[in-house]
Structures are given as structure tokens and as C-alpha cells.
Predict the structure.
Amino acid sequence: MTGAIVSPAGCVYNWGALTAATGRYLYLGGLNNATAAAGESVTWFRVPRAGVFRNMYAEGGAATTVTLRVNGADSALTISFPVNTLTSDLTHTVAVAAGDYVSMHVTGTAGSDCRVYVEFI
């Protein structure tokens, strides 16, 4: 199987208490969440096969940083963007093995929403 199986990575609405210090984690796999989960382990997506994450796009209603995490650690695939600006990371790729756990970590100021797309091949 190839293609974008984690599109969109997740949506967060009414972040409220989201700050750079606390952050939140997004579910992968196209889930549309009312709020992001406070703990990373409940948002882990277990990768079904080896592959590569690439071509990440994100935008939202507040200045935000979105980072793909693998097995609880930040990866090189990250985007920081200002308010209402579609931004991309088309340079970095992240190789994963079958069974790895991935999530999206979001930090920033309180905002209205966040949309993330990342391709998995």
C-alpha cells in the first residue's frame, strides 16, 4: 500500500489552554478531534509497515509548531507557521519501521484550529 494514509493527520478546535510550554498531541489517521489529547501515548499510531513520512503541510488560526514524533522523540519533520498561513516541509523525510509509534506534537499560543497533512509512502 502506498499513498497518504494519514491525511489529514488531525484537527484541533478551540485549543484554549494550548501554550508552548504544555503542547498537545494529535491523532493520526484522519481523525477529526474536538480537542487534542493531553498525553502522547493515547494518540500513538502504530505504523503497519516500513515506510517514509514526507511532504508535511500545516496551517491554523494561531502561531503554531507541528512536529512528527516517532517512538516518543521529535523527528526532523517539523513546521512552524504564523496565523492563517499554509506552510510546508518538503525537504525532510522520516523513515519508520513496522511497529513504530508516531504522533503529531503541537505547540503554540491559543488558537482556533490546526490542519495537518503528511504523506506516508
Observations:
- Strands lie at 10-13, 24-26, 45-46, 51-60, 64-70, 73-81, 87-89, 94-96, 101-108, 113-120.
- Residues 20 and 108 are 5 Å apart (CA to CA).
- The longest strand covers residues 51-60.
